[in-house]
Amino acid sequence: MSGMLPDASPSSVWPVLHYDDTRAALHFLVGVLGFEQAVAVPDEHGGIGHAELRWPGGGALVFGSTRHTDSVHGRMRAGSSAVYVVSDHVAAVHQRVVDAGGVVLEAPHETRFGSGVAAYVCTVQDPEGNLWTFGTYRGLSPE
Predict the structure, then answer these.
(1) 108 exposure class (CB count in 10 Å sphere: 0-12, 13-18, 19+)
(2) What is the DSSP letter of 47?
(3) 138-142: long-range contacts at Cβ-Cβ below 8 A with a sequence spacing of 24 or more?
C-alpha cells in the first residue's frame, strides 16, 4: 500500500494513560495485571512522572501523572481510557484481579467481536476507572 509504513515491531503502538496516583497505578499494572516494568522515573511530587511497561506477550504501555500539564498529554484525565490486551492467560489475569480485591466488570467468557471471530475475554477496571479487556483475539490475519 502506498504511503503505509512497514510494521516495525509488535510494540510499535504504545497507549498513553495518566493517573492521579501513579504509584498505585504501577502496583496494579505490574503487581496485579502482570505487566513488566521497564522504566519508572520519579517526579518532583513523590509519584512517577514517566513509566514504560511491557506486556510479556508483546506490546508496551506508557503512563504518567495527571499533575503534569505542560505538554499536549497534559489534557488527559485519569480513568477515561480503555485498553485491549492480547493474552492466552485470561483466567489467570482475572484471578489475580479477584485475589487483589479489584473490580471485575466481566468475568472470563466466550464472545465474538465485530470481526465475528470467537474470543475468550474478561474486562476489569483499574483503581482510577480505566477499563482493561484481556482476550485471546489477535485480530484478523491480513489477506
Answers:
(1) middle
(2) S
(3) 138/86, 139/115, 140/115
pLDDT in tens, 4-23: 444 444 556 788 898 999 99
Which distant-in-sequence residues (6+ apart) come within 8 Å of 126 by Cβ? 25, 28, 29, 33, 102, 132
Q: How is the chain split into domains, by residue range? A: 16-135
Instruction: pLDDT band for 103, please (50, 70, 90 cuts).
Output: very high
Which CATH number fits the domain 16-135, given the four candidates 3.10.180.10, 2.30.30.20, 3.40.50.1980, 3.30.300.20?
3.10.180.10
Please report how many Cα atoms fall inside a 13 Å half-sphere around the Cα of residue 39, on the Cβ side.
Answer: 11
Pull the grid cell for residue 131: 477499563
Report the run of H or E that residue 92 belongs to, with start and end: helix 90-99
Q: Against a cut of 0.85, is the pTM above it? A: no
Compute CA distances 89 → 75, 85, 92, 99, 120, whole Å.
34, 11, 5, 15, 10
Q: State how beta strands 60-65 and 16-19 pair.
A: parallel
